[in-house]
């Protein structure tokens, strides 16, 4: 029988044998992993848990909150509040940051998350997930303010996502490759199932919400026109398209078999900077994708190099197989 390694064991090995992560970070990641198990459980109950449908509220970006968005946010806040590893948290579902209350010990990390990504898929039983990013709090900081979170993605010390799909998986990087853990539902444990995930540099698969095509800028239109032209077009090969409308699920497919994911800026409002948020969607995914040998840009620069200006800042995203990301990025520069 193959020897099974749990998330705890994997992290202890990273800490003890390779001296790659401090014990505080290991414990923090384990708490996030535990929270994701609870979210997976809530998601899995569906109609039986009376967790489907709208919560009757809006988040800071004016989006309707689903009950499970709110429940997942609370699970993450509660799980991480008292552990002593964090100075503060920020979430897609909260207007501003959540410093650790004074009744609990404080730690040196900052945690950001999108508690339940792919909200439009919740009620229709399509894969959804949690995305998270961990930063070090600035030296000497006592109580964090919003600006302490505004660090470029290169400063992330860990990032990951969980997908609540046919299987529940947790994909994680601490800057030493990308590893995937599957939730053993009987044991309640995360088990290492893929080590060192690698994204092939070339692909024949792309992902974009084509219903926005009329708003696209010329570089995106050119790239998509060329792949749609197939084997007789300039690319000389046929491409397949997939769009799940859950970034976690689209990125997970790309980590497993390659592909390029695009959520571009477009000509709306008057210059829509894309839909996805830099701090808790694009940055953690860019860190993971780069660690797996892929690339991630906003069409102009590497996502991880962007200096954030606002907590809920939006950003255009092109990520996945390196050669395709480089191609679509180069079209923006012509
Ligand atoms: P959410 O965080 O409100 O769920 O929005 C993010 C999601 C991504 O998971 C996905 O890639 C995108 O929105 C889908 O957008 P669209 O509705 O345009 O297909
Ligand atoms: Mg999201």
Automatic annotation (TrEMBL):
It comes from the Bacteria. Its EC number is 3.1.3.11. Mg(2+) 2 binds at residues 114, 117, 281. Its cofactor is Mg(2+). CDD domains: FBPase. Residues 199-332 form the Fructose-1-6-bisphosphatase class 1 C-terminal domain. It is an enzyme of class 3 (hydrolase). This is Fructose-1,6-bisphosphatase class 1. It comes from Herbaspirillum hiltneri N3.
């Amino acid at each position: 029988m193959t020897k099974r390694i749990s998330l705890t064991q994997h992290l202890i090995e990273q800490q003890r044998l390779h001296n790659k992560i401090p014990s505080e970070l290991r414990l923090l990641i384990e708490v996030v992993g535990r929270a994701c198990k609870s979210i997976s459980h809530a998601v899995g109950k569906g109609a039986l848990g009376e967790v489907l449908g709208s919560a009757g509220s809006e988040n800071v970006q004016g989006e309707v909150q689903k009950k499970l968005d709110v429940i997942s946010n609370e699970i993450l806040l509660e799980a991480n509040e008292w552990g002593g590893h964090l100075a503060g948290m920020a979430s897609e579902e909260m207007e501003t940051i959540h410093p650790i209350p004074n009744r609990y010990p404080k730690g040196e990390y900052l945690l950001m998350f999108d508690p339940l990504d792919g909200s439009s898929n919740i009620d229709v039983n399509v894969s959804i997930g949690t995305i998270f990013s961990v930063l070090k709090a600035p030296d000497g900081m006592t109580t964090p303010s919003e600006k302490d979170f505004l660090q470029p993605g290169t400063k992330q010390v860990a990032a990951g996502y969980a997908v609540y799909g046919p299987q529940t998986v947790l994909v994680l990087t601490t800057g030493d490759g990308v590893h995937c853990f599957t939730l053993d539902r009987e044991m309640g444990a995360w088990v290492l199932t893929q080590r060192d995930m690698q994204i092939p540099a070339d692909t024949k698969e792309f992902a974009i919400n084509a219903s926005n095509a009329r708003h696209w800028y010329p570089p995106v239109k050119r790239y998509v026109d060329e792949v749609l032209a197939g084997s007789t077009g300039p690319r000389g090969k046929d491409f397949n398209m997939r769009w799940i409308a859950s970034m976690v699920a689209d990125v997970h497919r790309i980590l497993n078999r390659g592909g390029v994911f695009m959520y571009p800026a477009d000509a709306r409002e008057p210059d829509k900077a894309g839909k996805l948020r830099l701090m808790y969607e694009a940055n953690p995914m860019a860190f993971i994708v780069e660690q797996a040998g892929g690339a991630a840009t906003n069409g102009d620069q590497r996502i991880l190099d962007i200096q954030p200006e606002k907590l809920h800042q939006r950003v255009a995203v092109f990520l996945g197989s390196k050669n395709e990301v480089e191609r679509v990025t180069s079209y923006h520069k012509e």
